[in-house]
């Protein structure tokens, strides 16, 4: 569920980058201050461990498919929220660069979706409060499963919000949510079971590992209600800002796009075609209320002339766009080959 | 387990590309990171029905592959093999957005297909830009550049540590997975319980390793940051590189050369 660059708008990508960068700066300061020097190599090596663990699959009984560990919650339980957040963020950066999972601009979204929720929401508020300081085995298992499920519902929910707010993909909010959440419910249960098994193994083999994270800050003590509410308020303001920017901007962006497609030439309103297209759109649109374009394109005689602008049908320009794109692509490939040839010639001393 | 070893080899190949010696490899990493950032922002800032205006942006990956002498086929395969989330989500566009946006002769093209094509082109551009940045710069240099651009030191140390032990632990994990595979029968023995103990054992080993590393580092005078010799300088070449590409991207963002060229060509024949 790595969010991808191609689905993002700059506004959403930028604000999520800012949010994640802020969280990284905060966590870094926090880790630095409480500097338990041992944590530095531990975080790094655990990040590498997570990587290795994600390469190993296990088979899921009864389905014939296989899965692997996500690990966000596991790291939070082992390291505590701040160090875990930094570790998850670093793993995501490596994935973005080496595997192009997601993308560089989508990194902000991904760090937020997969790092912030398990480390700063699920672990401190839910896991700590439900598990207490020394939970029994059964209690620990169900709490871990519950937390993994909640974390893996919040993450995809944020993915859907970010995608819809960006407005590049067409999937309407409700459908997208229905696609994402049930899948991640199953993934969450599996993740929870595996995490619980690993934690209980570690507790049996080396209980002292789990001590520091659990005793570093008592549950509830570090997170007074006031700060929690403030955080959620801030989150709401940011979300509202992003969504409203999108809502007001999109029709203009679309008109602009249509003007570009038609080459910015003068458009004449063709009554019959215009209306039939509008009818077509009305019958075809599955979720008209989610369809931001319909408000911009619906023929409303009383509205300003810009709403009158019909869909463009301009065979000349679209053909030109096509041919031009192909020509540019050829030129680009040729220039790349040329540069490469020149390098080779230089390397072998041929002129 | 062959697939883990193969993944590791692939990983190392990408990593080794950064050891090249072209002029591009020698540039200060900050310039390269900033140029990629400008590139990405200008690519994703296009409207969702734009296809032709995005195509000229391929000049950036093509020129860099040429200049840095990267294996184009390998990178293209890597980009193509990735099946990012974007395409899975974008595939619904043609179904949901069916109003006709343009005609190519008798063929009507709906907005959904246009925006899907746009997502495809964006994916190719952004993914290849990220891979090329890595292949021309290398991970440690990118980390250093980000640190110089304001990333917290703790996080930079974290990233460098992760990178340093990635290969070590991936090999260890691969060995463990192979051992498990040799002892299991089909999918029997590869279930959750054996997986959990395998991962937990790996975790404990990792933990002990981290403690040893920490002691070794203390013995060598570690104070919370890596001391690295500064090899790069942000000089005139870097400034030229940054300004040149940024100007080109802004120009491409504001005009549509593909369409201009196309109308020129069609104008010649009509």
TrEMBL record, chain A:
Record's subcellular location: Cell membrane
Matching Pfam families: CbiM (PF01891), PDGLE (PF13190)
Top-rank lineage group of the source organism: Bacteria
UniProt main location, coarse: membrane
PANTHER family noted in UniProt: METAL TRANSPORT PROTEIN HI_1621-RELATED
Keywords: Cell membrane, Membrane, Transmembrane, Transmembrane helix, Transport
TM ranges: 41-60, 72-98, 104-130, 142-161, 173-202, 228-247, 319-339
Ranges of residues in domain PDGLE: 226-341
Upper lineage: Bacteria, Pseudomonadati, Thermodesulfobacteriota, Desulfuromonadia, Geobacterales
Recorded topology in the membrane: Multi-pass membrane protein
Name by which UniProt lists this protein: Cobalamin biosynthesis protein CbiM
One Gene Ontology term from the biological process aspect of the record: transition metal ion transport
GO cellular component: plasma membrane
Automatic annotation (TrEMBL), chain B:
TM ranges: 31-47, 53-72, 79-96, 116-142, 239-255
Localization per record: Cell membrane
Statement: the UniProt record of this protein carries the keyword Transmembrane helix: yes
InterPro entries: ABC/ECF_trnsptr_transmembrane, ECF_CbiQ, ECF_transporter_component
GO cellular component: ATP-binding cassette (ABC) transporter complex
This protein's UniProt keywords: Cell membrane, Membrane, Transmembrane, Transmembrane helix
A Gene Ontology biological process term: cobalt ion transport
Membrane topology: Multi-pass membrane protein
Protein name in UniProt: Cobalt ECF transporter T component CbiQ
Organism: Geomonas silvestris
């Amino acid at each position: 569920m790595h969010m991808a660059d191609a689905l993002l708008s700059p506004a959403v990508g930028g604000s999520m980058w800012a949010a994640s960068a802020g969280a990284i700066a905060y966590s870094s300061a926090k880790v630095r201050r409480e500097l338990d020097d041992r944590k530095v190599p531990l975080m790094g090596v655990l990040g590498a461990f997570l990587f290795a663990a994600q390469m190993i699959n296990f088979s899921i009984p009864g389905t014939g498919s296989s899965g692997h560990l996500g690990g966000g919650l596991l790291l939070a339980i082992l390291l505590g929220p701040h160090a875990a957040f930094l570790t998850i963020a670093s793993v995501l950066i490596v994935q973005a660069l080496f595997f192009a999972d997601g993308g560089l601009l989508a990194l902000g979204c991904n760090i937020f979706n997969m790092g912030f929720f398990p480390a700063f929401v699920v672990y401190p508020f839910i896991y700590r409060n439900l598990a207490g300081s020394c939970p029994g085995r059964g209690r620990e298992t169900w709490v871990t499963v519950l937390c993994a499920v909640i974390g893996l519902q919040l993450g995809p929910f944020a993915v859907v919000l970010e995608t819809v707010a960006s407005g590049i993909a067409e999937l309407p909010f409700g459908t997208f949510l229905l696609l994402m959440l049930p899948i991640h419910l199953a993934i969450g249960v599996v993740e929870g079971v595996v995490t619980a098994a690993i934690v209980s193994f570690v507790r049996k083999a080396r209980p002292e590992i789990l001590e520091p994270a659990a005793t570093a800050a008592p549950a509830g003590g570090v997170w007074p209600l006031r700060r929690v509410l403030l955080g959620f308020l801030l989150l709401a303001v940011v979300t509202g800002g992003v969504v409203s920017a999108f809502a007001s901007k999109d029709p203009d962006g679309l008109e602009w796009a249509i003007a570009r497609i038609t080459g910015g030439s003068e458009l004449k309103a063709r009554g019959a075609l215009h209306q039939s297209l509008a009818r077509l759109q009305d019958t075809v649109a599955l979720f008209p209320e989610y369809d931001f374009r319909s408000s911009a394109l619906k023929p409303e005689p009383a509205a300003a002339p810009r709403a009158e602008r019909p869909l463009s049908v301009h065979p000349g320009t679209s053909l030109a766009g096509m041919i031009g794109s192909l020509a540019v692509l050829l030129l680009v490939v040729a220039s790349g080959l040329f540069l490469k040839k020149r390098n080779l010639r230089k390397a072998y001393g041929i002129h | 387990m062959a697939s883990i070893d193969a993944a590791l080899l692939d990983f190392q190949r990408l990593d080794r590309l950064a050891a090249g010696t072209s002029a591009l490899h020698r540039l200060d990493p900050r310039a390269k990171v900033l140029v990629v950032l400008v590139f990405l922002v200008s690519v994703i800032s296009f409207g969702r029905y734009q296809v032709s205006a995005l195509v000229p942006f391929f000049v950036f990956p093509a020129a860099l592959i040429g200049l840095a002498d990267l294996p184009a086929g390998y990178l293209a395969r890597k980009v193509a093999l990735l099946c990012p989330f974007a395409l899975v989500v974008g595939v619904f566009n043609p179904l949901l957005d069916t109003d006709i946006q343009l005609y190519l002769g008798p063929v009507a093209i709906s907005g959904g297909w246009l925006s899907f094509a746009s997502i495809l082109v964006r994916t190719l551009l952004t993914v290849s830009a990220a891979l090329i940045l890595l292949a021309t710069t290398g991970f440690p240099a990118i980390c250093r550049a980000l640190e110089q651009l304001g990333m917290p030191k703790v996080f930079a140390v974290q990233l460098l540590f992760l990178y340093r032990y990635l290969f070590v632990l991936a090999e260890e994990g691969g060995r463990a997975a192979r051992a498990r595979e040799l002892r299991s029968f089909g999918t029997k023995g590869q279930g959750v319980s054996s997986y959990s103990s395998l991962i937990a054992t790996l975790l404990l080993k990792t933990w002990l390793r981290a403690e040893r590393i920490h002691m070794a580092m203390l013995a060598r005078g570690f104070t919370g940051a890596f001391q690295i010799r500064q090899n790069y300088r942000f000089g005139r070449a870097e400034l030229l590189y940054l300004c040149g590409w940024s100007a080109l991207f802004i120009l491409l963002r504001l005009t549509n050369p593909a369409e201009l060229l196309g109308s020129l060509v069609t104008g010649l024949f009509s």
